Amino acid sequence: MQEQPSAERAPRRDARRNRERVVVAAVAALHRDGPGVPMATIAADAGVGVGTLYRHFPTRDDLLEELTHRSFRRLLDHLEEAVESGGTAVEVLGAFLTAVVRDRDDLVLRSTGGPASESDRTRAVQALLHDGIRALVARGRDDGTIRRDLDVPDVAWLGATLAQPGRGPGWDAVAARLLATYLAGLGVAG
Mind listing where the DNA-binding region sits, in residue ranges (predicted)? Predict the structure, then answer.
């Protein structure tokens, strides 16, 4: 008996590789040239033809949505890894934000100059991230390491401030000092 082909085949390895090359090139081009960077520039930077780019991302919005979704997914992964590593809430928050700063040049988020996301799938990941941060703040109140008024927007704006893309290598030391000062202040009664 002959096996029936599946309705959706996994993309070929070279197609997956080309898609990833487009994504990496698009992030760099957006940081370098802004959201209006020509799609042809992104394709050239990725070393693929424009047709290949459009085969993976039929519109600019599709490409920008993918970059935003990946960024929120990466943030959520960082938060989950930090939580799993243990420690006080402030230590977990510090590990999470340190990872965000480290990946700043790979993130495309509205708060760091990227587009707003309108997709349900990205909003769902963003909601999970916000829920995780809320739970971490509540844990900090319970363990006594967070004594100041703090909520998701506070953490988001701190992360966005520290994770501006395109900062030079000296920024890591500055961001680490600012983050350490901020985290130490969370344990001081307001």
Answer: 38-57
Nearest CA to 152 among 102, 98, 96, 106?
A: 96
Which pair of structure tokens corresponds to residue 153? 């927007």
Residue matched to tokens 């983050």: 179
- Residue 169: DSSP 8-state: T
Same-domain pairing of 35 and 81: no
Residue 39 CA: distances (Å) to CA of 46, 73, 117, 166: 11, 24, 19, 21
Residue type, 27: V
Give the mean model confidence (pLDDT) for residues 116-140: 93
pLDDT in tens, 68-108: 999 999 999 999 999 999 999 999 999 999 999 999 999 99
Tell me if 158 sits within 8 A of 110, measured CB to CB.
Answer: no
My answer on whether 22 and 82 are in the same domain is no
Above 90 in pLDDT, residue 38? yes
The verdict on residue 39 lying in a domain is yes
Task: Indicate the SS3 state at residue 148.
Answer: coil
pTM: 0.87
CA atoms of 137 and 90, how far apart (whole Å): 9
Identify whether 2 is part of a domain.
no
Q: How many degrees, rounded to 5, is the angle at CA 74 between CA 149 and CA 54? A: 135
Residue 113 and residue 45 share a domain: no
